[in-house]
Amino acid sequence: MLRISTKTFDELTTSELYGLLQLRSEIFVVEQECVYQDVDGKDQKAVHVIGTKDHKIVAYTRIFKGGDYLAQASIGRVAVAAGERQHGYGLEIMKASIKVVEERFKETSIALSAQTYLKRFYNSLGFIEKGGEYLEDGIPHVLMLKG
Prior knowledge:
Layout: E1 3-8, H1 14-31, E2 47-53, E3 56-64, E4 73-80, H2 89-104, E5 110-115, H3 119-123, E6 128-129, E7 134-136, E8 139-146
């Protein structure tokens, strides 16, 4: 069972910060073979949505209120550990993230930069493509909006 918690940067423990950076690196740097600066100075403004299973971070997103990253609220760094993807944790962490945006920030318009191959997944959550495909760190993406 996935246990979801939400924390600001200052509320993260050292172990949680290490765990979420490790998960992000495993997926976005190693698995996707993408060399980029993940520690980008934006984590301090983000709210971190963390999914743990057996005391290990296996799902994660970071969210921003409107104006802190994009004009509207946004969800990014959506990550689920490779060995845990068959359990639907991506859907769980995204639903929780949308709820946090709506409840904590009182915003219903949400943006995300989706890897193109995940468009249908985000469509199922109410996100719609806006504009054409673009490369972000060498990977095809599309801007998607909800609300």
